[in-house]
Specification:
The complex is a heterodimer of chains A (273) and B (319). Chain A has one domain: Proliferating Cell Nuclear Antigen, CATH 3.70.10. In chain A, 14% of the residues lie in helices and 36% in strands. Chain A has five helices and 14 strands. In chain A, the strands form three sheets. Chain A has an eight-stranded antiparallel β-sheet. In chain A, strands 9-8-7-11 form a four-stranded antiparallel β-sheet. In chain A, strand 12 and strand 13 form a beta hairpin. Chain B has 319 residues and is an alpha+beta fold. Chain B has seven helices and 18 strands. In chain B, the strands form three sheets. In chain B, strands 6-2-3-4-18-17-16-10-14 form a nine-stranded antiparallel β-sheet, sandwiched between helices. In chain B, strands 5-1-7-8-9 form a five-stranded antiparallel β-sheet. In chain B, strand 2 and strand 3 form a beta hairpin. The longest helix of chain B has 18 residues. The chains are: A mainly beta (273), B alpha+beta (319). Chains A and B meet through strand 5 of A and strand 13 and helix 6 of B. Strand 5 of chain A pairs antiparallel with strand 13 of chain B, so a sheet runs across the interface. Chain A: Belongs to the rad1 family. Chain A: It is found in: Nucleus. Chain A: Its main location: nucleus. Chain A: Keywords: DNA damage, DNA repair, Nucleus.
Chain lengths: 273, 319
């Protein structure tokens, strides 16, 4: 390694996008991350007690000259001033679990929620929507885990909690089309996930990202592994295009993919594959 | 021991809106040192470990009809709580302005008194603010320490004399707010800040922990004192490497100070200085920041006001 000049150069036109992506996967103060650098870009992996894993994919943006050693963040405010940072790497104490996410069957078990973080935060975890508030005052999610049930007939997603009292929220696909953008399910499945892990998949997404969010996809894979996918824009905010629809085109390199994997609680095997 | 003076309108403005808010950030208690010609607010000159700050005013900058006498060459010094002083000045201003917009001239008198407070057997020293409103007069007593003995005054004067050494190279910081924003973020990273200043006009502030190094570099700043041209071969090197090479060449100095002290020194922008210069004292004794004030509406230094801070160096570093 030469003393001058890093081995990898990666230029980013909007640091805020990366900050947003990193914020989204940060759920505690001291949190180690494994960084993978390759010619395709940067992948950042964070884990919690081998039950929750988050991955951030920052795709290749401009130029990657060769392979890693360390990387330098440098922002140029003006010609004569700069801010730089150097993060020393260390060998991770544990190897991150590389779960091969496999579909549970021929038909994917998935649903896409418009603006998931907001939905989860306001409707599911802290119900504040007017309708719910009328029904149940001071609603709190009971117990430490949440059961997610997907069923094809009628197509619906159910969030269910039991503890000191029960709480069940049903989203009927045909009723909540403004909320559930897509739905795919050919048989009923049900898994239980730790509340705090489910919350970690959405709670830290910065509000600026929620605004741009096009929907978050939740997929249940084999063994009940839950995958939550968000897309975060890392491009400089530009003038919004008047014709951007749900399939609106955005340059792939301007998007950071954030994926969370949540393992189900093991004791639960009600109606599974 | 007698002290009596009228605060001028300009003096009230200087203290209330600018200097007292800034000095309050330096530390709750300061020494007020009054001489025949000057009024000084001094922080940490007697005990070595904190950030030292010296704010000095010629008597005309603050007062009218300034009368001082003591058996100690007309010098008086005592400790005072800045926030109490600030409150007294502030409420005096509100009383003065409450009734019409007339001039505050000769309406705000301050003097040193000894009074017997309620439930006390011993008289206590106070700095008294007497404010004459339209129909009323309000008297506020700010408690102060026992005035310094001759030996204590000499000690304070010695500390003041020792705090006057000037760095050989001073660089002007272009934007105090920008630097303050940056340092406020750095406070979360670590406690020790490395500051390097070169004769080329480079200022480097950097924090290093076992895992991360974060820094900011400002280049081509205005230099006062010893200066040199930056070597052309260094141009494309990183900030850290250039700084290290400049130190090796003897063209730069580097010291380590507390981030908290550095952030405090930046709080002096509350005093609304027109310029700020950072420099490292000879042998890396301390990091000095000197604030410059212009005569309003000009680019000429107002010599009746001065403010500078000295940040203790935690590790001599490379000098």
């Amino acid at each position: 390694m030469s003393s001058e000049g890093p081995d990898l150069v990666c230029e980013v036109d909007n640091v805020q996008g990366i900050v947003d992506a990193l914020t989204a996967v940060r759920w505690k103060r001291q949190q180690d991350a494994v960084v993978e650098l390759s010619e395709h870009g940067v992948v950042l992996i964070v884990e919690e007690s081998s039950c929750l894993q988050a991955k951030v994919y920052l795709q290749r943006e401009i130029e990657i000259r060769c392979y890693i050693v360390f990387y330098i963040l440098r922002s140029v405010d003006s010609l004569d001033a700069c801010i730089y940072a150097e993060i020393r790497t260390r060998i991770p104490e544990t190897i991150s679990w590389d779960y091969n996410f496999e579909p549970a069957g021929t038909t994917p078990l998935s649903f896409t929620v418009k603006c998931l973080p907001l939905t989860i935060q306001t409707v599911i975890f802290k119900p504040q929507s007017a309708a719910l508030k009328e029904a149940i005052d001071d609603l709190e999610w009971p117990g430490s885990s949440v059961q997610i049930i997907l069923q094809p007939d009628p197509p619906s997603v159910t969030f269910k909690g039991e503890g000191h009292g029960d709480l069940q929220i049903d989203f009927m696909y045909y009723v909540n089309t403004d909320l559930l953008i897509a739905f795919s399910c050919d048989r009923q499945v049900s898994y239980r996930y730790k509340y705090k892990f489910l919350q970690a998949t959405t709670s830290n997404i910065p509000s600026s990202v929620i605004r741009d969010n096009r929907g978050s996809k939740l997929t249940i894979g084999r063994g009940g592994m839950l995958k939550v996918q968000h897309l975060v824009s890392v491009a400089r905010p530009s003038i919004p295009h008047p014709h951007i629809d749900s399939a609106g085109y955005q340059q792939p390199s301007r998007i950071a993919y954030i994926e969370f994997f949540v393992k189900p609680e093991e004791d639960e095997s009600t109606i599974n594959d | 021991m007698k002290f009596k003076a009228f605060l001028t309108e300009n003096g009230v403005n200087l203290l209330e809106k600018r200097f007292l808010p800034a000095l309050d950030k330096m530390g709750k208690i300061c020494h007020l040192y009054l001489t025949r010609d000057h009024t000084m607010f001094l922080h940490n000159l007697l005990n070595g470990d904190g950030i030292q700050s010296v704010a000095q005013f010629r008597k005309e900058a603050l007062f009218d009809d300034y009368r001082i006498s003591s058996q100690n060459e007309d010098r008086i010094a005592f400790a005072i709580d800045i926030s109490l002083l600030q409150r007294a000045v502030r409420s005096s201003v509100s009383i003065c302005t409450e009734f019409g917009s007339g001039p505050t001239q000769n309406r705000l008198q301050i003097k040193l008194v000894k009074k017997l407070p309620p439930n006390c057997t011993q008289p206590m020293p106070f700095l008294t603010f007497e404010t004459k409103g339209y129909k009323s007069a309000v008297i506020q007593d700010v408690p102060i320490s026992k005035p310094f003995s001759r030996a204590q005054v000499i000690e304070l004067q010695t500390g003041l004399d020792m705090a006057q050494d000037l760095p050989q190279t001073l660089v002007q910081v272009p934007d105090l707010n920008q630097l303050q924003n940056f340092v406020d973020r750095l406070k979360h990273v670590g406690d020790l800040l490395n500051v390097s200043i070169s004769k080329y006009g480079d200022l480097l502030v950097q924090i290093s922990t076992t895992l991360i190094t974060v820094g900011a570099e400002f280049q081509k700043l205005l230099v006062i004192g010893e200066q040199a041209d930056a070597p052309a071969e260094d141009r494309n090197l990183s900030a850290q490497t250039r700084s290290a090479r400049a130190i090796l060449r003897g063209d730069a100095q580097s010291v380590q100070v507390s981030v908290k002290h550095f952030a405090k020194s930046l709080q002096c922008h509350l005093a609304k200085p027109d310029c700020a210069f950072y420099g490292i004292a000879p042998q890396g004794a301390c990091l000095t920041v000197i604030f410059q004030f212009f005569i309003p509406g000009s680019r000429q230094t107002d010599k009746s006001i001065s403010l500078h801070c000295r940040l203790p160096v935690l590790d001599p570093g490379s000098s």
